[in-house]
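hey so u asked for the seq, here:
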Amino acid sequence: MDQPRTYFAHILSARGVAVLVTNHQVQPLPVRPREGNRTSGIVCSACGEQFLVTVDSCARTTALRVRYFIVGLVLLALSAFLLWLTFSVGMQPDGPDLDLDPDNASWLGYTGVTGFLLPIFGLGLLLHSRRYDGVGKLRRIGADGRPSKLVAGHKLLPNK
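ran it, structure tokens below
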């Protein structure tokens, strides 16, 4: 069992227009469970409100980080292959009327757009795999005892 790197934060003040500067009062989250995930209660030390936060186990967090990393690498490799296929193989000058073929044009357009979007998603998943901590679903417990997504003034801060 280990402590998550993410902190629970109460926003004390926020100021600024173009650049938002905030002051936080942070507190650590509950310890990770041995297996699976666990929803634990946490009380804000600044205002006394109660919250629920879901914390995954270390094994589950590591498995998801590896999965995000592998999918990101596969997307980057697939995008490199599609770019190679589009611009090296697909752009061979074989004849004057080959460029007017609708099947060829749609294939080049499809692989070109996909080849430009896949690296964005691949890099996003690689970055997400580095930052993923297994902490999520911050919910405020309302007056009626039901969890609510409205957590104004509170958030989960990743430790850098």
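The mean pLDDT is 80. The first strand starts at residue 7 and ends at 15.
lmk if thats what u needed
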